[in-house]
Amino acid sequence: MKYLNLIVTVAIVSTSLLALRxxxxxxxIKLVKVWETDTxxxxxxxxxxxxxxxxxxANIDGKPGALDGNxxxxxxxxxxxxxxxxxxxxxNAPKGMGLYKNKLYVTDIYRLICINTENGRAEKTWDGxxxxxxxxxxxxxxxxxxxxxxxxxxxxYRLKDGKWEVWLEGEQLNKPNGVLAVGKDxxxxxxxxxxxxxxVDVATKVMTTLADGMAAxxxxxxxxxxxxxxxxxxxxxxxxxxxxxxxxxxxxRQQKINAADIDYVARKKLLIVPTFYKNTLVAxxxx
Length: 287
Prior knowledge:
Number of helices: 1
Structural class: mainly beta
Mean pLDDT: 93
Strand content: over 45%
CATH topology: Neuraminidase
Shape: globular
Number of domains: 1
Strand order of the largest sheet: 1-24-23-22
CATH superfamily: TolB, C-terminal domain
CATH architecture: 6 Propeller
């Protein structure tokens, strides 16, 4: 009986010690390079996965603010082959893109353009407010509402039910670049002036900071479960957890390789990074 009591006591003590033990740290995330396109792209600023088999790429092909008609959209396969270099051309300096059904929304300096993905033709445009409008990123909510950032003028535009308006503005936006709609109720914003990822409640417009210290925040994409990948245009990629902690996954600043407006192909665990002046897309497997 003594031995039985001793065994039970040891078991209880061992269980208690296990309970006191801190939880294991999550395994660090790694990015493993899988492929890189050739260099026929021309200053790729953003990439967007269509949910099936195609990556759309916005090419500036000139100065980011030049009204030169040189800009174009490319189609690239998920294994890095450029399938149609100039699928749509005649743009100026296209940047952010958003997709809803067969409509591709693209910013082009002072305007937002809607392109029909079935034929590559522009169907409609909406101009920003003022002569110095500089529209940058685009995101589309599940209900089709389109949000667009103007990072030089501290504005967020909204296109909802055919109405185009300045939805949010002011210095508190701190030069918004990347935007990401999360459901219908939340909008994430990358504030480049303060290097922060911020969340806006769509109903109240109340803004909170999720994480900071990320320099020139550019692209924002969801990994799922309220975790996100955020790019710093200078050449960094961060993973931001739901609790606001962040981890640097990539740093190519010394090589002078930019990391512009990224996208994530969840089913293949591929993070796609436009390198801007290096004229390529690079795909990394997330491990």
